[in-house]
Design brief:
CATH topology of the largest domain in chain A: Rossmann fold
Order of helices and strands of chain A: EHEEHEEHEHEHEHEHEEHEE
Low-confidence stretches of chain A: none
Structural class of chain A: alpha/beta
Radius of gyration of chain A: 21 Å
Helix content of chain A: 25-40%
Oligomer: homotetramer
Number of strands of chain A: 13
Shape of chain A: globular
Largest interface: A-B, 30 and 30 residues
CATH architecture of the largest domain in chain A: 3-Layer(aba) Sandwich
Number of helices of chain A: 8
Strand order of the largest sheet of chain A: 7-6-5-8-9-10-11
Largest sheet of chain A: 7 strands, mixed
Strand content of chain A: 25-35%
C-alpha cells in the first residue's frame, strides 16, 4: 500500500456514478488498479473500493472533489490510517489472543496491538512477554456500569481504531458500544444465528450437529445480532464429546477472527445497515 | 457387499462386549474385515458395525447367538436388505429428485426408487421418463388427515424401506411419521438449527450470513428437530440476492441429501435418541 | 439478464481506462450495476466485466464507441449470446452428462445441450429420453484423423458455442482443438497439476493422498495444460480403495464441471494466456 | 488419557484377530472404549488402535501376552509416552513455529517443545521469550555432512521423540533421516504431488491454479515422497499475486502441520509402507 491511494465510497445510487468517480480520480492524475463496486438495489445504495497506483497529491482535495461530485450524503474516505491500532479484550481463553499477538510480533497482522485488557489476569504473562501492556480490570463486585467505565478509562489513552473481543465473555451495554460505533469486533462461538447465547457447544452436542461453526461480527446493541464479517465451519461427528467440540470450535474461532481482522485492517469491509459489504 | 456379512448391533454397554461379539463371529467361521464401534458413555450405550469377509452359513442363527451373548435388550441386525426400496415425496422443486433418479437409472444409488408421489404434478414427466411410477396426490381441498391417508394409501403397495422427502413442502403429522419410524429422511433448507421454519433463505439474506447450509435428518414428531444425518455449507457474500442464495442452497441440498442417502443405504447410520451414530 | 447489458473488455492497460469506459457507457444512457475489473500488472493487461441496467439502444454502436475509445487491439463484447449451445462429448461414464442433461431439462443450465456424441453407445438411451440427439461415433479401426473428422462432421450442423468433454477419454489433436479455440471445456480427474495422465486415482491411492481433486479447464494443444476454470477437492483416507476414490472423485468431477459451466455460460470467464480471469 | 490404556497393533492379517485381541484385553480386566481397525487387503496387514477404560496393571505383561497371541512379527505398543518431546527445526519463516510454541506455552499442544534449532538466527528472540532453548546452527561454509552432524549433535541431549521441520528449508540426507526413522515430520508448501520442489507458489501462480494446498508428511529418503499425514487447501483466484498465494499458503501450512502434529501426538497415525493409517 506504500505507493497507492485507497478510496472508499458509499452513497445513494444514481446514474453515472462510476463515470463521475473515475473522472474525478483521473483529474487527480491517478490510475485505477482495482475497483470493486456493489449496488444494493433494494436499499438504493452504492458502494465502491478503489485502489489507485501512486499517491494522491492532496488526499483532502481528492475527498472534497469526490464528495462534491457525488449525491448528497456520500461518505468518502481517502487513505484510511494504514497502521491501525487494536485494543484487545479477553477473559481467560488464549487461542484468539495468541494468534493475534504472534502476528503482531512478526509484523504480519497489518496492525498494531496497542494494549490488552482482561477481566481475569490469566493472559497477562503471555501478553507482557511481547512488550504489550496488559490491564487487569476485574468485573467482580462492580456494576456493569462501573466495570465498563473502567474498561473505557483503561482504553482511552491508547485511542484504538478497533476494539477486538477475543473471547471476552461479558455482554457490553449499548452505552459502551456507542463509544466505538462500528469499531468493536467480536468472535462468536457458533454459526450464527444457530445456538445464540450461552453454552453453544453444549447445545450443539445435544442437537447432534455434524458441523461446528464460528462467526466474526461487529457488535451492536443487540447481542449476537451485529453485521457478520466472516463465518466458517469444521466437521464434527457423533464421537466428539462437548470437550472435543469446544476444541474444534476454538480452531474455527481463531481462523475466522483472524480472517475478519485481516479484512477490516485492509479496509475491505463496509457496514451497511445490519450487514457488511466485503470486497475480498 | 456380495461376499460379505454385515452386522449392526446396539445395546447397553458392558465389560468385554467386543470379545463376546468377536468370539461369536469367529465361531461362525467369519473373519472381521472392518469394525467400527462407539460407546456413548453418558447414555451407557454400545454401538458397532462389523463387516466380515464371506457369507454367514445361517444369518438367523448368527443373530440369535449374538443376541444371546449380549446384554438383554440388544438390537442385532445381520445382513439388512441390500436392495432397499425408496419412495420419494416431492412438491415442485426438481434438484434433489433429479439427482436421485439419475443415480437410480445408472445403478449407482445403491437402492431402488420404487415410486414418486407429489402434491403437484410438475415432476411427473421427468419421473415417468425413467419408468418410475409418479402419483399426483393433491393436498388441495383436503384436510391434513385426508391428504396423508391418501399418501399412505399410495405408498402402501410399494412397501418402501425409506420415505425420502426430496423438497416435500408439507409438514407431516405425528400419525403419518409413526407409520415409518426412523425411516423418513428429510432435506432441510438451512444449517439447522439456524433459520428453522419457512423462508430460510430470505431470513439468511436479511441476516447477511456468509455461509448457506443444508441439513439431512430423520423426521420425528418435532418439525426440523429429528436426528441429523449430514450437513454441509457453501460460501455466499453480500452480492448474493435471495434468489442467488436459493440457487446456491439447492446445490448444497442436493449434495447433502445425496450423501445422507448413501450413508443410510449402506447401513452406516444408527439412530440413538435424537442423534445419529454415523460410521463413515 | 433480460433487461441488462453485459459488456466484456480486455485490452492493454493504460491510465484512465475506467473513466473512458464509464463515460462511453453513460453516453449510451446506461447505468452500471456491477463492475468487476482486473489489471494483470506483469502482463500490462486490463480486464473488465460490466453489467448495466437496461438494454443498450444499439449494441454494435456501443461496441464500436468503446473500441474507438480504448487502446488499440482491445477486445470488446456487448451482450454475448444468452442462450449458448453446448455439444457434449462422452465415452461411457454418466455422472457428468447426467448432471448436465437434468439441468438442461429443467431449464437451470442456462444453456442448451444441442447434441451429445460418444465413442461408445452406452449413454445413448439416457440422452435420447430427454429428446437430445445422441451420435455414436466409434473410434475403433479409425485413425485419430478419421475419428476426429467424423466428430467434427457430426457437430458441424449444431454450430455449438462450446464443446464440453464430459469424461471423453480420447486425447484431441491440435487440429481438432483449433476448430474451437477457447471453446472446449474438459473435466480432468485430478487436482492438476498432480497426477497428470492416466489412472490418476490409482496413482493417488498408491501415493496415499488425503484429498482427491478435480479440475475443469479449457483445452489447448498441451494435454491437461490449458487454462484452469475451477478446481475442488474432497477428503479421503487410508480406508478408501481405488474404487472408493474413483467414486469420491466422480462427485467432485460432477460439481466442478457444473460450476465451471455455470461460470462460462454466464460470461464470467476470460482466457488470458494460459490462465483465466474469473469474475465470480 | 489419564485413566486409560492405549494399545496400538500392526501385524499380518489372519482370521480371528479381533477376538484374540479382545480376549487378551479382557483377561487383563480392561474394557474397550474405542476400537478403530483397518485391514489392508492388498498388503494383508492388520492395524488396530484400542482405547480401554482404566489403567492396565502391567503394561509389559499386556504387550507380551498380545504379542504371544498374535501372528509372528506383530508390533504391539501399550501406552506410548504421553508427553512427547518435539525438537523443531526452522529457517526464517515464523508462522508454523509461532503456532506450535503458543500451543506449547498454553499446554494445548499435548507435547513439549524441548528445543528449536535454526540455520538462521531470526527466530531466536521469539523462541527464547518462552524459555525454550534456541540453537543457531548455520549451514554456511559447511558441507551437508558437517552441518547435519552439528544439528544431530545439538539435538542429541534433548532426546526428542519427533523432529518437526517447521519450514526448514534444507534437504536432509538419508543418513540424517535414518537417525529418526518415521519420526521426522515435514510441512510441504504444496498439495503434493503437485509442484514438487522449489518455488511451488511461483509454479502455482504461473499455472493459474484455483486452490493452494499444503501437505504434512513423514520424511523418508526421497524428498517430498514420504507418507502423507494430512493435507488441506484454500481457494485462490486470478487476482492473487505470488505474494498473496504465499500468504494464503502459510495459513494452510500452519493449520495442516498443526493438525498432523495433533494426530501424531495422540498416537493416531501408523506408518505402513509409504502411506499412513490415520485413526481420526
Amino acid at each position: 500500500m506504500t505507493n497507492q491511494t485507497l478510496i472508499l465510497i458509499q452513497c445513494r445510487d444514481a446514474v453515472g456514478l462510476v463515470a463521475l468517480i473515475a473522472n474525478t480520480v483521473a483529474e487527480h492524475q491517478l490510475n485505477i488498479v482495482t475497483m470493486r463496486e456493489y449496488v444494493d438495489e433494494a436499499a438504493n445504495r452504492f458502494y465502491v473500493r478503489i485502489v489507485c497506483a501512486g499517491k494522491a497529491n492532496d488526499n483532502e482535495q481528492l475527498a472534497y472533489d469526490l464528495t462534491a461530485a457525488l449525491p448528497q450524503g456520500a461518505t468518502v474516505t481517502v487513505n484510511p490510517p494504514q497502521q491501525k491500532r487494536l485494543a484487545v479484550l479477553v477473559t481467560k481463553e488464549h487461542h484468539c489472543l495468541g494468534d493475534i499477538i504472534v502476528r503482531h510480533f512478526f509484523g504480519t497482522l497489518g496492525a498494531e496491538v496497542c494494549c490488552v485488557a482482561g477481566n481475569y489476569n490469566d493472559l497477562s504473562t503471555f501478553t507482557k512477554r511481547f512488550g504489550i501492556p496488559f490491564h487487569h480490570v476485574s468485573h467482580e463486585g462492580k456494576s456493569k456500569e462501573q466495570f465498563e467505565a473502567e474498561i473505557a478509562h483503561t482504553l482511552e489513552p491508547y485511542q484504538p481504531d478497533y476494539v477486538v473481543l477475543a473471547k471476552f465473555m461479558r455482554i457490553l451495554s449499548p452505552e459502551f458500544v456507542a463509544r466505538y460505533p462500528g469499531r468493536i469486533i467480536n468472535i462468536h462461538h457458533s454459526f450464527l444465528p444457530a445456538f445464540i447465547g450461552a453454552n453453544p457447544y453444549k447445545q450443539a452436542h445435544a442437537r447432534g450437529v455434524k458441523l461446528i461453526g464460528a462467526t466474526a461480527h461487529f457488535v451492536t446493541n443487540d447481542l449476537d445480532e451485529g453485521p457478520i464479517i466472516a463465518q466458517d465451519i469444521k466437521p464434527v461427528n457423533h464421537s466428539h464429546t462437548v470437550k472435543d467440540m469446544v476444541r474444534a470450535g476454538k480452531e474455527v474461532e481463531k481462523s475466522v477472527l483472524s480472517k475478519a481482522l485481516a479484512l477490516v485492517i485492509e479496509d475491505r469491509v463496509i457496514i451497511t445497515g445490519n450487514k457488511t459489504v466485503v470486497f475480498e
